[in-house]
Design brief:
The protein has about 850 residues and is an alpha+beta fold. It is built from 33 helices and 29 strands. The strands form seven sheets. It has a five-stranded antiparallel beta sheet with strand order 1-2-29-28-27, with no helix packed on it. It has a four-stranded antiparallel beta sheet with strand order 3-4-5-6, with no helix packed on it. Helix 12 packs parallel to helix 14 and helix 20 runs antiparallel to helix 21. The longest helix has 24 residues. The model has no long low-confidence stretch (mean pLDDT about 85).
Length: about 850
């Protein structure tokens, strides 16, 4: 703490410092010489390709991927064409741009994912230079070819190549160039000798940096800031021009007194920067140039690489990695020598307090007198967030906690949030993890979700789970997502048996919310482990998730069993439909025979949609009863009589095979009826075909064909009661009263004579109805008399039978004018009651 400002270097009104991030774990025999190097921003991985243009088939270049701390992730020989450029996408995918314009994409662990081409014409002219850039649309690639033409792809996920206009007078490789992103448009800034051009989709425009000295000479190097807002130009005379990237305003122009072209040039600035600067690197010199014309020089012992970050520059060498950045203003206020800022006084008060010195009280009194204790606490918390050293963080946070004790109204939210964030950041900064995120980068890069995704992507599962639990992220967003990714990687381990992996996955995942065993099983199947996939599917509680994968794996029998067990008819239908399309008919039917539920559901489907298939099913099973039913049903759909009779005859044959005599006889009678109907249709034009037996008899009687109706009555042994009812209604409706009377006298009525009375009254013929009252049985006399409106006759019949209920029924029908009749009935009721 006493020497915290020892590595501060003044630059104008600000200070710059170099903080060591890591001593690199890698062991590079030749350092970083003769290598293509790409380091992803936000503490991302490092890719290194040695001797990228080597063409000897006997010794291939080696592509190596390391974490930011130099821990080896993967390494493999490069077997494709010569590589011009390496770069990282926003998703930490490695892009390798080859001379022939092919861009190969690998994941963090060196697994090939896909490739695309920058255009057919590039194959002939070759790629001279390339750049990978990040735009609002995603990760893009820009190249310049041997024919001096530029081609852009602004988003590799949605590839659309744009060939930019020619640059006047440009032959071969340009002096320097950069990609600009302005107002959601991607442009290229090109230096060709003394000229500077901006290329967009349709035009090539000559531009001139405002305020650049005429003696500056040609531009030989350029750099765009991390946010694409600022531009730096280095000329052949050693002058450095800085300004806005739209070339509308100059910030500064400085003579670096270095004539040689720098190997790298990177902007170094932070949000709300006091003194933005540009870092230039030569073989043995690192030069920081501010817009104030001041410079800082750092000697370099090893060849290094600069990586631009949101709030500084990472300097990577073969032995170490450092972060060069402007010291945040709040840190300057606290740690500057003789600072009287509130945070500085609070920090000193806490130091004295730990020494049990009374000076602590003096410092606190001074802060309280100025009424800035709240500001002092906030300064300490903010400064702790910007410090990389855990000991410095703790000292500042303890000072803030000490100051909070003397405040009655102070929100602890900032303090608590910063504590949590620092614990997480310190955990991921560990060299074993190798993600040197700063507190400024953390919210700019990602939500907490993205940080966890990055840990998961690097397979730091225990740390990811601890972070989720520490920050109390809901399981389905945190721990469950980590476990799902872990399980998907676990199934790819070839050194473990299927049984061991299934047990391990089940033990670890359990019933965690949001984790689908079917997704894990699908990954196992993709990796060529179908048996493991089936074992994992046994842990899946939802059949709807099991079945699709089983079908994909061609495990149709198991899929059908799972669907039936689920009780979900839609799922069963899905499997049955799939099997029907995938299997030959014989195997399909045999499969269904082993699953009665599925077979039953399929039969229901066929009844509505595929009747012919239903017939084949019954034939396959020798189900003669159902075949007979099928033929009967089919006969009703046949409009031709011959076809209908043929179908019915087939039904008779099947019923006989099924030994169902009743059904066979009923079907034969249906055939006889059809023939009878056809005969009458031909002779009389009666239109009887297709009617039921009863409807046929009714139609015949309504047509006056009583003899034919009587023939049906005898031939089909129609019950007497049904026949008499049909004829009674028919004659009454046609008002054939004489015929009706004859019919009533033909023999004793099986339906009685009350029916005649009621039917006649229904057809409004009281006179005819009265003829049949005398024939009615004594039990029905009262009803008959009441039906024809003969109250006196009804009363006499009721009194004769001495039935109180019948007397009551007659009384209920009497009106006031029937006083004598009512008295008669009442006397009879009294007499009947006495007895």
């Amino acid at each position: 703490m006493a020497f915290i400002t020892a590595n501060w270097n003044p630059l104008g009104d600000a200070f710059y410092r170099k903080t060591e991030l890591y001593e690199m774990f890698w062991s590079l025999r030749d350092g970083l010489r003769d290598s293509l190097i790409a380091a992803a921003p936000y503490g991302g991985p490092i890719a290194l390709l040695r001797e990228p243009l080597r063409r000897s088939p006997s010794t291939r270049p080696q592509l190596e991927i390391y974490s930011a701390s130099g821990v080896s992730i993967t390494s493999f020989p490069w077997k494709s064409g010569p590589v011009v450029y390496l770069g990282w996408s926003v998703n930490d995918e490695l892009l390798c741009v080859q001379e022939d314009g092919t861009v190969l994409i690998y994941d963090l662990f060196g697994s090939f994912k896909r490739h695309f081409s920058m255009g057919q014409e590039v194959v002939q002219s070759q790629v001279l230079e390339a750049k990978v850039f990040h735009s609002p649309y995603g990760t893009g690639v820009a190249i310049v070819t041997g024919s001096s033409r530029f081609t852009l792809a602004t988003n590799i996920e949605d590839l659309k190549l744009r060939r930019l206009p020619e640059v006047p007078g440009l032959q071969g490789r340009p002096s320097c160039w950069a990609v600009l992103t302005q107002d959601r448009q991607t442009k290229v800034l090109v230096s060709s000798g003394p000229e500077l051009y901006v290329l967009d989709n349709t035009s090539c425009t000559a531009v001139y940096p405002p305020g650049l000295s005429p003696q500056a000479g040609s531009i030989v190097h350029m750099s765009v800031s991390f946010s694409y807002k600022y531009l730096a130009l280095f000329t052949e005379t050693g002058r450095l021009w800085t300004g806005l990237s739209n070339l509308q305003e100059r910030l500064s122009e400085v003579d670096t007194k270095q004539a040689a072209t720098p190997r790298q040039m990177v902007w170094c600035r932070r949000p709300r920067s006091q003194q933005p600067s540009v870092v230039l690197m030569w073989d043995r010199l690192l030069l920081v140039v501010g817009s104030c014309n001041d410079t800082i020089q750092f000697p370099l012992e090893d060849q290094s690489v600069l990586v631009g970050e949101l709030d500084g520059v990472r300097i990577i060498s073969s032995s170490s990695q450092e972060l060069l950045q402007e010291v945040p203003l709040v840190c300057q206020d606290i740690f500057k020598i003789a600072s009287m800022a509130p945070g500085a006084l609070l920090l000193e008060a806490h130091r004295e307090y730990e020494k049990s010195s009374q000076k602590a009280d003096e410092y606190l009194r001074e802060i309280k007198e100025q009424n800035v204790l709240g500001d002092a606490v906030r300064q300490c918390v903010e400064a702790a967030a910007h410090e990389y050293d855990p000991d410095t963080q703790k000292a500042l946070m303890r000072a803030a906690s000490f100051g909070k004790c003397f405040l009655t109204e102070f929100s602890p939210d900032q303090f608590v949030t910063t504590c949590r964030e620092l614990r997480v950041l310190n955990a991921v900064r560990e060299s074993s993890v190798g993600m040197p995120l700063t507190h400024t980068q953390y919210p700019a890069l990602m939500t907490l979700q993205v940080l966890i995704d990055r840990l998961v992507y690097r397979q730091f599962y225990p740390l990811a789970i601890e972070v989720c639990r520490y920050l109390k992220i809901p399981d389905y967003q945190g721990v469950s997502r980590v476990l799902k990714h872990w399980a998907s990687c676990k199934v790819q381990q070839k050194d473990l048996t299927d049984e061991a992996i299934a047990r391990a996955v089940c033990a670890k995942v359990g019933d965690s919310p949001g984790v689908s065993y079917s997704d894990i099983a699908a990954k196992a199947y993709e990796c060529g482990r179908p048996e493991l996939a089936i074992k994992l599917l046994d842990f899946e509680a939802r059949s709807g998730q099991q079945v699709p994968l089983l079908l994909k794996m061609k495990r149709s029998q198991l899929a059908l069993s799972k669907a039936v067990e689920s009780g979900d008819t839609d799922l069963v239908y899905t499997v049955v439909t799939y099997l029907k399309n995938e299997m030959n008919r014989g195997d399909f039917f045999m499969t269904l025979r082993n699953q009665p539920v599925a077979l039953s559901l399929y039969r229901q489907f066929c009844k509505l949609q595929e009747p012919q298939t239903l017939k084949d099913l019954y034939n396959q099973d020798d189900d003669h009863q159902e075949l007979g039913n099928f033929y009967v049903t089919s006969s009703y759909r046949d409009k031709r009589l011959e076809g209908r009779l043929a179908q019915l005859q087939s039904a008779v044959d099947e019923y006989n095979k099924a030994k169902n005599d009743f059904a066979a006889k009923a079907t034969e009678e249906e055939m006889r009826l059809l023939r009878f109907q056809r005969k009458l249709d031909d002779e009389k034009g009666a239109g009887l075909l297709g009617l039921s037996l009863q409807a046929t008899m009714e139609a015949l009687m309504s047509l006056g064909l009583h003899k034919q109706a009587e023939q049906l009555y005898r031939d089909f042994r129609v019950p007497d009661k049904r026949y008499w009812w049909l004829k009674l209604k028919s004659l009454a409706e046609k008002e054939q009263w004489e015929e009706l009377e004859k019919f009533s006298k033909s023999k004793k009525s099986p339906i009685g004579y009350l029916a005649f009375v009621e039917v006649c009254m229904k057809n409004n013929n009281r006179h005819e109805a009265k003829k049949y009252v005398s024939k009615v049985t004594p039990e029905q006399k009262v009803k008959a008399h009441l039906a024809v409106g003969d109250l006196e006759g009804a009363a006499d019949a009721a009194i004769e039978r001495k039935n109180e209920a019948e007397m009551g029924a007659v009384l209920s029908r009497c009106s006031a004018s029937d006083r004598l009749l009512m008295d008669k009935l009442n006397r009879a009721r009294v007499t009947a009651a006495k007895k």
